[in-house]
DNA sequence: CACGAAGACCTACAGCGTAGGTTTCGCCAG
DNA sequence: CTGGCGAAACCTACGCTGTAGGTCTTCGTG
């Protein structure tokens, strides 16, 4: 299987390694991910990976970069194929949020990586540029526009992190005796994790931005 | 130093272990944390820890539980010592958010743990109970009240995670040629990570909840 | 044709989580 | 007072991890 002579090329590069890392994390989870399993999946010696990636931390950087790249592609195609120009900042914000959400659900086990890392990649700032430009065009005050990206992605990161966390697929029941208000609200949590739920919360956040 | 006879008690229990784990993570970071260093800090054999905690995952659970306990204490004292009754849901929400923020800044390296775990501990639900009760008392529609905790903590978790992440202490500069809108907003990001910044964003989120 | 860089493999090491076994102490029943 | 028993600690050992350092082969270039 790994019958390659010692000096022959294995065709490794950062992109191929990152893609394999994402696939492996998707399948086995972050916990089990490591250099040796990855090398096995690539049919390669573990140390060969270190010729393209500095270390395990850089490996995780590459993986999160790769999935972030996906959302950029999706956001672009969604925007360009829309019938009408999404000039309104709220529609644009919704498109970006949906693309981001789709990525998170496609790679739930990679998503935690993304959230912990600084997002200064070119694709990320391009998306933000178009959003803040639209907001200014629509007359929102600069103070609000400056806060908007962090409010929006703060919410998205936190919410999607909770939704993609392993094992929590529903809100637990509450005792009406000790927690009457929570128990009364239980019906409102029946669509836990649904797209409609996120859209509703997104509306709340966007309303806050619009009204400030 | 570790001169204890084999069967003598080391006075271990879950609380002491959790406290030591939090201290160790605060000092050395999650990456370096492990059973053996923890045992060293406690002056104990690594395997002794397993008599009180099932495994490393449970160890991390205990640590996040411990810091969450802190925020509950703080929120209670803040509320009870306030001059006037914080009956308005917005003030209560701000108190809870500030207590949560203080905890995150006190234990920036433990905070990521907290965010990934389900928060169904009694102290957490008690805080939420008082918040949603106040919101209903103030006449907000149940639909909004049901979404409120997840919107609020989604935002807080995501934002504080970004703020407590290692190494990102400022927003980078943007090229006015390629990203004019972002460059124009740069002055608005000068208070990155400050309390005022979080309060502003919190106002935006609360405004969204109030206006929905 | 020589040679140096690039890219792959191999070896080795310290440290990890933890399963399983052993030792000792303190308590309580008889 | 004593016997036994469970709790709590320690010890050993195993398979795994990330990665430093060295070796080998091939390919592009002078």
TrEMBL record, chains A, B:
Pfam families: TetR_C_1, TetR_N. The keyword Transcription applies. Residues 11-71 form the HTH tetR-type domain. Keywords: DNA-binding, Transcription, Transcription regulation. Residues 34-53 bind DNA. InterPro entries: Homeodomain-like_sf, HTH-type_TetR-like_transc_reg, HTH_TetR, Repressor_TetR_C, Tet_transcr_reg_TetR-rel_C_sf. This is TetR/AcrR family transcriptional regulator C-terminal domain-containing protein. It comes from Isoptericola luteus.
